[in-house]
């Protein structure tokens, strides 16, 4: 028996402690109904996570049940819980929500939960632009336009978030204080840093041109992007050459980066090759892809 527990075994100790803590927590509730409800949850928690963890964690869920009792006096429908706690808040009480669902006291709506998460993410994006500035007004008008499309069934909330992210980035890159509209330099600068945002940013550029007659164009300088990518690959190769351990995972990454750097093969293609397609000798590696053989150097030759 553990020291200090006399003749009580480990499992019995935690079981007894859990029971004691549940009983103490029941005193928080005003109605016998919720006191019983919490005891039922406590019993489920003990079976679900074990006596030890249940005893240590049961108290943290009291505020959730107390809040429900205070606002509704009964277990409300899932949309009401979502509206009050938000998707993030409900994730923090994952186990009570799991119990409520398993005991048929509520029905979780995953679609509504994800929509709530997206709405909160949208709010966070809008909040990145200083309030009551030109930038904030522009972003608000643009978001309202996107919401109109959502209401018409032409756009999803997720698509709205993906459209607002580069819009906010452009406004902030043009003027971090949010006091001025973007110019062509800001557009070109952002697309140089994030060329993959071209499609998402194009809608915002059209909006700016239509509403503010800015005459902006959204285009990616392919030569600049290619040169920047090559520099990035070169740095990655040097880092791998100096720190590589020669294990299988390293070899796979080395081959992928080398095939793009030396032969212009996209990563998505090189990641599909099998280990049997790679032959290593003293001079380097020979990689066979679709009937063609590509040579790449060894780590040691690059590091040296």
Task: For the structure shown, list the relevant keywords.
transmembrane helix, 3-stranded antiparallel beta sheet, 3 domains, mainly alpha, 304 residues, membrane
Q: Describe it for me?
A:
- By secondary structure, this protein is mainly alpha-helical.
- The protein folds into 3 domains: 10-108; 125-212; 223-303, no CATH class.
- Helix content is 66%, strand content 4%.
- It has helices at 10-26, 32-49, 51-57, 62-71, 78-92, 94-102, 110-126, 134-151, 157-174, 184-193, 198-212, 222-243, 248-263, 267-270, 299-303; strands at residues 278-280, 285-289, 292-296.
- Helix 7 runs parallel beside helix 9.
- The longest helix has 22 residues, at 222-243.
- The N and C termini lie far apart (62 Å).
- The model has no long low-confidence stretch (mean pLDDT 88).
**Helical run tally:** 15
Percent of residues in β-strands = under 5%
Q: Let me know the largest β-sheet.
A: 3 strands, antiparallel
Strand order of the largest sheet: 1-2-3
**Shape from CA axes?**
flat
Q: Structural class given helices, strands, pairing?
A: mainly alpha
Summed up, the domain count is 3
What value does the average pLDDT take?
Answer: 88
Kindly report how far apart the N and C termini lie. 62 Å
Using the CA coordinates, give the radius of gyration: 29 Å
Sequence of secondary-structure elements: HHHHHHHHHHHHHHEEEH
Uncertain segments: none
Q: What is the oligomeric state here?
A: single chain
